[in-house]
Amino acid sequence: MPDYHDDLRLAHVLADTADATTMERFKALDLKVETKPDMTPVSEADKAAEELIRTSLQRARPRDAVLGEEFGSEGRGPRRWVIDPIDGTKNYVRGVPVWATLIALMERGEEGDRPVVGVVSAPALNRRWWAALGAGAYTGRSLTSANRLSVSRVARVQDASFAFSSLGGWEERGKLGGFLDLTRDCWRTRGYGDFWPYMMVAEGSVDMCAEPELSLWDMAANAVIVREAGGAFTGLDGREGPHSGNAAASNGLLHEDLLAYLGD
């Protein structure tokens, strides 16, 4: 098993840099916000954070490729850093503290690209989560002050907590019926949204979550953290990893049930 410790340390340094930038502009009265062609917002903090991460990667990992939400793809090779500078921009621009910087390293293997390092940093919540392939998943203030993550052992939908982002996407996908059936059959539902439900699946405080439409930068870091915590992360088609344009995550015990309600 390759050792990704140095890459994980670098990802933490990148997250520290992003946190300083995003927190400086969080709730700023003069924050500049634009609307992208897909009608989603982007703030000056999104762009600044991604630029800083890219600049640091150019110095520290010049041979690695980079994919970011705001500035696209550059470079080639078997290793690629995948960045979402602010996951939850709509929350960020409204002053809601549920947003995070997502940083992942993906590496090409026999079965295609897979995330091998992931860091999710939510500075307004004073929380950070991370994982490296084969090394487990953790949360805490630093690499040396952390608690290991482990998914729940809930095995029945009737006892499970299910988290989601919104209703609209499921209706557009033609899955609203299955979605509503799941919300009726499970023990508890909450609409946390964005990165947070995946981290709670990894922590064991939520048992399953799903989203109908996502990009790679929304999922790569989350995927390795959930997997290293002992859970399952697939597309709605059941394909392993963050490659399906949507996501289903669970403690593993409930994954077949989750896909039975929402899967393709």
Q: Tell me roughly what share of residues is in helical segments.
A: 25-40%
Sketch the topology as an H/E string, one letter per element.
HEEHEEEHEEEEEEHHEHEHEEH
Stretches with pLDDT under 50, minimum 5 residues: none
- Which structural class do the helices and strands define? alpha+beta
Written account of the structure:
With 264 residues, this protein is an alpha+beta fold. Helices cover 33% and strands 29% of the residues. The protein contains eight helices and 15 strands. The protein has helices at residues 5-25, 44-60, 89-94, 168-172, 176-185, 196-203, 216-228, 255-262; strands at 33-35, 41-43, 65-68, 72-74, 79-87, 100-109, 112-122, 127-132, 136-142, 145-148, 161-163, 188-190, 208-211, 232-234, 247-250. The strands form three sheets. Strands 4-3-5-6-7-8-9-10 form an eight-stranded mixed sheet, with helices on both faces. The chain has a five-stranded mixed sheet with strand order 12-11-13-15-14, sandwiched between helices. 47% of the residues are buried. The mean pLDDT is 93.
Question: Which terms summarize this structure?
Answer:
5-stranded mixed beta sheet; alpha+beta; globular; 8-stranded mixed beta sheet; single chain; 264 residues; 15 strands
Summarize this structure briefly:
This protein is of the alpha+beta class and 264 residues long. The protein contains eight helices and 15 strands. The protein has helices spanning 5-25, 44-60, 89-94, 168-172, 176-185, 196-203, 216-228, 255-262; strands at 33-35, 41-43, 65-68, 72-74, 79-87, 100-109, 112-122, 127-132, 136-142, 145-148, 161-163, 188-190, 208-211, 232-234, 247-250.
